[in-house]
Specification:
Blueprint lengths: L7 H11 L5 E9 L5 H11 L8 E2 H10 L6 E6 L6 H8 L1 H13 L1 H16 L4 E9 L1
Parallel strand pairs: 1-2
Antiparallel strand pairs: 1-4, 3-4
Length: about 140
């Protein structure tokens, strides 16, 4: 995920360099559905405690990043961000045993349970802001 990378242009260029002619490169990135304020970034940094949130961009912002990297044929598929997926979604993402481990830790640890609840509520309350996008291009 590019939100975890400091030099996004370099990462995109490296992907473009190593794929064969006719090949695809793609990213799934957390994306803002609309421009956000500095206050929102401070709030999300407090609630989520994730540095990577400062690296999230709007759908158009991500498109511009790819264009700045020399990729003029980037395709964008905007999606809703839904961290409220069920147990089945979690198994698909994490695998059966990892899901059991996560669920066990949530059940046995009150602090983790409260943290998950706060984060889920935050995502729910701000669903008009959180999205994700699939960004891909063909070489």
């Amino acid at each position: 995920m590019l939100v975890l990378v400091n030099d996004k242009i370099k990462a995109i260029n490296e992907a473009a360099r190593v794929i064969k002619k006719g090949g695809f490169a793609g990213w799934l990135e957390l994306s803002w559905k609309k421009e956000i304020t500095k206050d929102f970034i401070e709030k999300i940094s407090t609630v989520i405690c994730a540095y990577c949130m400062t690296n999230v961009s709007t759908f158009d912002g991500w498109r511009k990043t790819f264009i700045d990297a020399g990729i003029d044929n980037v395709n964008v598929i905007p999606l809703d961000f839904n961290p409220q997926g069920g147990f089945r979604d979690m198994i698909q993402d994490e695998g059966f045993f990892r899901t059991l481990s996560i669920m066990f830790n949530i059940m046995k640890n009150k602090e983790i349970r409260e943290r998950v609840k706060i984060m889920n509520n935050f995502f729910k309350e701000n669903s008009d802001v959180f999205g994700c996008g699939i960004y891909y291009f063909k070489k």
